[in-house]
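Consider the following assembly input.
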Amino acid sequence: MYCSKKDKRLAIIMLIPFLAVLFLFVYGFIFWSIRVSFSAWDSILPDMSWVGLRNYQELMGSLRFKTDIVNTIYFTLFFMVICIVGGFLLSYLLFVHLKGEGFLRTVYLFPLSLSFVVTGVLWRWIFNPEVGLNALLRMIGFKAEFGWFTSTYSIGGFNVALIALIIGASWQYLGYTMAMFLAGLRGIDDQLIESAQIDGAGEWSIVTKIILPIIKPITFSAMIVLGHISLKIFDLAYAMTGKGPRFVTDFPGLYMFETTFRGNHYAEGAAISIIMLLLVALVIVPYLATSMKEDEA
Amino acid sequence: MKLSKTNRTIKYILAIIAALLFLFPLYVIINNSLKPFADVRVSEMWVLAKRPSSEGFAKAFKALSQNLINSFILVIPVSLLSVLFGSIIGFIFAKVRFRYSKVLFFLIIFGMFIPYQSILIPLVRTLNKVGLYGSLKGLIITHTIYGLPISSLMFRNYYAKIPDELVEAGMIDGLQLVGVFRQVVVPISLPTMVVVLIWQFTSVWNDFLFAVTLTQKPSIQPITVALQNLAGTQVIEWNAQMAGALIAAVPTLLVYIFLGKYFIQGLLSGSVKG
């Protein structure tokens, strides 16, 4: 767009204060955290003496952190698969124009407007081994003794206590992927599908040959969004389960918060936060770079 | 798509089952918030409230009313400031070409994805130094700053779609860039303003990490923190806890129910592409 030199200069001058604040609070603070992660700061009083990678090495050897990483991997995996497969199925049900579609969409999406703390409080009671689903199953005559999020049972490193959290998180985010997919499906030309039907294509082949290829890029964006949410998960675990017995429901975000602000182990907390940042950057930077390039084209 | 009647019916049934699954936690929360404490028994969470009572709500409201006010004091200025600042930044990045603008915008947007844990220690130190730690003012400033990336992105994506000619025509009429922005662009930005407004309203209302880290005194804590404190007590008063959760949920639920269209727009425009 044409823009006079004077206007351009004015625009840049107006941007400067925003950029200055934002860069200080984002990048300045990140560098500050990195510096703290290399320090010996382990009490209320700051101690910035340099210890190199010691905090990182200690984390790598800590049982809690290892458990957190394994928990994050499994949580991410299940959360993504459920939200993407489930979200697609829900969007497909709505795609065929059922009566009351608007109402159904509202129902699938409303959990997204809630705070993770609200979700956590609610699902904590539902999965409470004494009163929750177990009690319901007992009412119908089953012998329900599953410990849900208090269970310390694990299969191949997967702590089954995570199931409760995965269900709670998926309940909240299924609507999100549903909305993303539905927006994509609505973009498909009706005629394309109708002419395929005239040519004798069945529903299954329309889904696999026409619909799935079209929504593939959406699946990719959804994976990025869900992935970075689960890497950062904090509120839900904090409100619903806490770190759990033997850290069965612990995550890096929770560990960082507790060790820093409850235990005053600042350097350790900073190291955890930087590892979290690196993991998120690994997912987000390539995504951002490619989608901004496409945007330009 | 043309479908047979049976096929359509099966889909209908599946959609309704799914809806019931989504709604059943809502049944639990409403049902139990209406029970008097005397009816709160381990075996009876699933049983319909026989004697609906406002006991749970009264208790929760007494514990949370101040925090409910705090949350409003927090989200209203943050939402308004996000619209103001986001529209300015978004407009400049959409319509003014200057060197490094792509890279700068990339760096701004990255700020909305970072785990906030990675800036939390310096943030607490800084707010402490300037005397804003532990105050709602500090929390307002924090949310406004970290809300800039998403607000700017939403506005930029919208402004990128309005034709350059419209802006240029304003300039030919003798307006400067600022004048065009105020007299031509702002009046047609209302839908995006609503999107950003309710997006920031919900995400700041629902925030927990900043709130729990930056506010210590119960009297200034936002509702999410107070709810967690209420629910964290070991006493099994789940009627009050459920009522509290419902109270904390109602403002964002209402926004969603009445302005759902904008909420979904915000959700989808949160992706980076315009």
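The radius of gyration of chain B is 23 Å. Ask yourself how this observation constrains the way the partners meet.
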